[in-house]
């Protein structure tokens, strides 16, 4: 079974490419050419039934991911399936199953079975949980444990996998020599760095990269090269550890593409606003314009409870500057496992950031959506405004709660509605003498 990239290079237009082209209002041949080049990825595991494929990358609509999954504190998968349903309803293009609770296999299988959107996983989480149960410590995890877990998740239908292949001994040492406030905040990054330092050995994900490519090629899993060295606070952004990892990831992109394996690259993290554009340009340059998947970036560290906003501020600039895929951040970030309400808020907020960037990126239909809203507002067509809203249910609820039924203007302006007043003069027929 050939991968999407391999088929694209053979000149074949797959059904998935046709669906992405229709979704993006582009020609199928345009999508094929981008997939062949590697600047667009279509994560679609051959075992994920019922998937509605999405493209991620150059010239396409900026996509949004929602993180869900069980934890040791909340191990029940049922609430996570409800979060999946809410994320899809709100317009998420992907979900990541980050489960670390009991029955990780069951959680993943159920999420994939119920998900019409692409599903990502982080195999190192499950490998770590299994190692602790089997050997008593993360540092006792074996290379076989890791590769077996990657194969298991690929076989179950994971469309893309975050693998922290760039956390090398060199990157860790450079980070330590320069110094950081937050050290390593990536869960996967911390697991593998701890293993490396304890065992005084190189990262097995890096050393066994060819074996990982064998698995990805077999199931057409898109490799999402994880940013295990991402900054956990704005003071740590764009340091030697982060950039050393990024250089390694660029080299791994080349190796994956030579095998015909699709790749995305993951990025920071917490980044001051004035460094975001430079970070995007560095990734695109070093990774040959591979699709870039970013968490936020969060532009300040002081807003727990409002980090969906700090991430949206950074996400818009990141996407304008080249990022292709935004991982949502919810109001619960840094505080707790997100609720269904947090998922809703996180997805909608990230979609707003993505759409604001789409308008600048020239994505077909993006500017037209805003224009239609403006036209509806001009004539006070409330029903059309509600339909065009990115969150119609919330807009309708607020409109109904603070306005009298049938009221033409809104209760903010009432009788002094600027749109209503000016329309009396701008829209009336001109006197012939004014011609």
TrEMBL record:
Binds 1 [4Fe-4S] cluster per subunit. The cluster is coordinated with 3 cysteines and an exchangeable S-adenosyl-L-methionine. InterPro entries: ThiC, ThiC/Bza_core_dom, ThiC/BzaA/B. It catalyses: 5-amino-1-(5-phospho-beta-D-ribosyl)imidazole + S-adenosyl-L-methionine = 4-amino-2-methyl-5-(phosphooxymethyl)pyrimidine + CO + 5'-deoxyadenosine + formate + L-methionine + 3 H(+). Zn(2+) binds at residues 270, 334. The keyword Metal-binding applies. Substrate binds at residues 67, 96, 125, 164, 186-188, 227-230, 266, 293. Keywords: 4Fe-4S, Iron, Iron-sulfur, Lyase, Metal-binding, S-adenosyl-L-methionine, Thiamine biosynthesis, Zinc. It comes from the Bacteria. The keyword Lyase applies. Pfam families: ThiC_Rad_SAM. Belongs to the ThiC family. This is Phosphomethylpyrimidine synthase. It comes from Selenomonas caprae.
């Amino acid at each position: 079974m050939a991968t999407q990239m391999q088929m694209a290079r053979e000149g074949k237009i797959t059904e998935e490419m046709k669906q992405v082209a229709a979704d993006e209002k582009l020609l199928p041949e345009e999508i094929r050419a981008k997939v062949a080049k590697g600047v667009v990825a279509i994560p679609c595991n051959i075992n994920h039934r019922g998937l509605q494929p999405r493209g991620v990358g150059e010239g396409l609509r900026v996509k949004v991911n929602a993180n869900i999954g069980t934890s040791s504190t909340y191990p029940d998968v049922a609430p996570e399936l409800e979060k999946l349903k809410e994320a899809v309803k709100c317009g998420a293009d992907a979900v990541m199953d980050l489960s670390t609770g009991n029955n990780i296999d069951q959680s993943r299988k159920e999420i994939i079975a119920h998900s019409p959107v692409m599903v990502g996983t982080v195999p190192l989480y499950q490998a770590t949980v299994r190692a602790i149960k089997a050997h008593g410590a993360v540092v006792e995890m074996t290379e076989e444990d890791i590769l077996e877990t990657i194969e298991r998740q690929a076989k179950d239908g994971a469309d893309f996998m975050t693998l922290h292949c760039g956390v090398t001994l060199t990157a860790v040492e450079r980070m330590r020599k320069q110094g950081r406030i937050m050290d390593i905040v990536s869960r996967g990054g911390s697991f593998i760095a701890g293993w490396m330092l304890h065992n005084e050995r190189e990262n097995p994900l890096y050393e066994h990269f060819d074996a990982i490519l064998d698995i990805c090629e077999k199931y057409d899993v898109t490799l999402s090269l994880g940013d295990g060295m991402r900054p956990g606070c704005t003071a740590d952004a764009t340091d030697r550890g982060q950039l050393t990892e990024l250089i390694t990831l660029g080299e791994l992109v080349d190796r994956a593409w030579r095998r015909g394996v699709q790749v995305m690259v993951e990025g920071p993290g917490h980044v001051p606003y004035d460094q975001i554009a430079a970070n995007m340009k560095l990734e695109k340059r070093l990774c040959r314009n591979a699709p870039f998947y970013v968490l936020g970036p969060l532009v300040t560290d002081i807003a727990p409870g409002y980090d969906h906003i700090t991430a949206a501020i950074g996400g818009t600039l990141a996407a304008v500057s080249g990022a292709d895929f935004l991982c949502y951040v919810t109001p619960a970030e840094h505080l707790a496992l997100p609720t269904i309400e947090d998922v809703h808020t996180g997805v909608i907020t990230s979609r707003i950031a993505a759409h604001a960037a789409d308008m600048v990126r020239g994505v077909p239909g993006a500017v037209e959506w805003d224009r239609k809203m403006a036209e509806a507002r001009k004539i006070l067509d409330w029903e059309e405004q509600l339909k065009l809203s990115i969150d119609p249910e919330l807009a309708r609820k607020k409109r109904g709660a603070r306005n009298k039924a049938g009221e033409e203007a809104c209760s903010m302006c009432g009788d002094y509605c600027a749109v209503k007043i000016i329309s009396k003069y701008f829209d009336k027929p001109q006197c012939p003498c004014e011609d």
